């Protein structure tokens, strides 16, 4: 299932990688000695050009639907700054919580009797096979 999610959100690099060879094919056909003088050369150039245009349109369409592409750089920077502030705030809350928990355990120490026994079998997990 993880691979399905990765495939759904992964960038189709083959789509973008294929643009340069398609453009090179168009340029090669225009630079040939026969150029566009023969019907076969014209047909080959038309086919290569349409192939490039179609691939470029697909790439543009995909790029325009990428998440987050609708934000300006300044907006992205402000969101990153906000998230960093939130992270710092959460770290401070965690630190405060750990200090409070630590002080509670210190306050509870006088109530613990040194004669208190700990039942080690109650906290020991069963051995494999159901034997002790």
Structural write-up:
This protein is mainly α and 132 residues long. It is built from 5 helices and no strands. Helix 3 (19-31) runs antiparallel to helix 4. It is elongated, with a radius of gyration of 33 Å. The two termini are 40 Å apart.
Strands, helices and their partners?
Layout: H1 2-9, H2 13-17, H3 19-31, H4 39-64, H5 73-108
What does the average pLDDT come to?
79
Inertia-based shape: elongated
Helix content: 55-70%
Structural class: mainly alpha
The helix tally amounts to: 5
For the CA atoms, what is the radius of gyration?
A: 33 Å
In what range is the share of β-strand residues?
under 5%
From the structure provided, what is the oligomeric state, counting identical versus distinct chains? single chain
Could you provide a short overview of the structure?
Helices cover 67% and strands 0% of the residues.
Features:
single chain; 132 residues; mainly alpha; 5 helices; 67% helix; elongated; disordered N terminus
